[in-house]
Amino acid sequence: MKLHDLKPAPGAHRERKRVARGPGSGKGKTGGKGMMGQKARSGPNPYRTFEGGQNRMVRRMPYLRGFKNRWRVAYQVINVGQLNELPDGQEITIDLLIESGEINGREPLKILGDGELTRSLTVHAHKFSGSARSKIEAAGGTIVEVPWIVERRSRSRGPNPAMRNRAPAIEQ
Predict the structure, then answer these.
(1) 50 pLDDT more than 60
(2) What are the E-state strand segments in the chain?
(3) What global pTM score does this model have?
């Protein structure tokens, strides 16, 4: 075998399309661009959202008005009246509420003061409203505030220093 014997595998090399080289080429006259119109001309085509001159979708939609805080903390809420259904003297922990399906473990828990509480309960939560705090204590119960640790993501969408500098988890 010599260098002049080398050639690509069959079907690997395709002849280039010779546009507008006469009627025999199959791509003569208009060169595969149809008949006239903006898309047949050289230069840029209409913009992506162009709809033939009618008011386009992106202009028909209402604007997203106002401010949306990406860093807000959304709480799961449970009212004091819902805690009334649990047995007297029981310690209500966040893990107990997750197991029962009342809340999910992804967002912090806040206890609000809607309803009446007649039982003495020990309630664990991340936050309590003022009215919930007073109703639980008035019924003879106690409140335990559990800290909610928020892992902040990088605002610049770059490397996340919070994850990089975190202490390694101790395995037992």
Answers:
(1) yes
(2) 76-79, 91-92, 109-112, 122-125, 127-128, 142-145
(3) 0.53
